[in-house]
Amino acid sequence: MSGDGYADVEQANTAFYEALERGDFEALSALWLDDEISCIHPGWPVLSGRGEVLRSYALIMANTEYIQFFLTDVKITEAADTAVLTCTENILSGGPADAGGELGPLMGQLVVATNVFRRTSEGWRLWSHHGSPVLTESDDEGETEEETPA
Amino acid sequence: MSGDGYADVEQANTAFYEALERGDFEALSALWLDDEISCIHPGWPVLSGRGEVLRSYALIMANTEYIQFFLTDVKITEAADTAVLTCTENILSGGPADAGGELGPLMGQLVVATNVFRRTSEGWRLWSHHGSPVLTESDDEGETEEETPA
């Protein structure tokens, strides 16, 4: 574990979200490993391999007019050229409007993510991304004990 | 990457879910790394460190009378003593009944998980677990385009 490594990992993570914000598919693709990768978007099943994963981002970018990530609680642990980063994604997004070219209604969302990076000769690259919605207690009616384990 | 490694990783993963099924807190604790770990249960925020993570499992075990995991779509990739495993958890669970000692109503649930393991001298240990609900299209009313990226 090294301080340098942590800064590099956080930089790769920031680049990932900035590519999403810009809708920059090329930059996003370059940030993923070339071999076996996996990705789980909030509420989605598992996507495996570059084909499935990158197609999902192309689809999401096509359906997203505006998106901004405010990352909080970024925590990084690192060992043997691998890093596990967890963070909270405070998302503000807007889809295309139904009619006309105006921006659709903005929506706020709270997502937590586990991003796994591997160090390569070209820098840190994404091996796995898993995002899931935070169903906060205030949204439920005393159903917090019903949460499912694992 | 080795075939042996893959079998060992799957074995550690199976042991993790079996410990949960048995409500075996000691076995579950032993399967996690000693240092910085993270865990995200479906709908929960991030839990970091052994204290937070193991406390959550103690809480879940106390509130779960019965739980069974049918794992499908297990996929493993491995590099540099680290393995990323994704799987679908088909969960059947029941909480304690409100009154009397009988089993509460059984509930089925579909969860996808990303489990990150690290090889140690005592075998593969969990570094990170992230589970999230699968919100299938059939449960929504044509809202699949609203899915949030990342």
From TrEMBL, chains A, B:
This is 3-dehydroquinate dehydratase. Residues 137-150 have a biased composition (Acidic residues). Residues 9-134 form the SnoaL-like domain. Coiled coil: none annotated. Residues 130-150 are annotated as: Disordered. It comes from Streptomyces clavuligerus. It comes from the Bacteria. Gene3D superfamilies: 3.10.450.50.
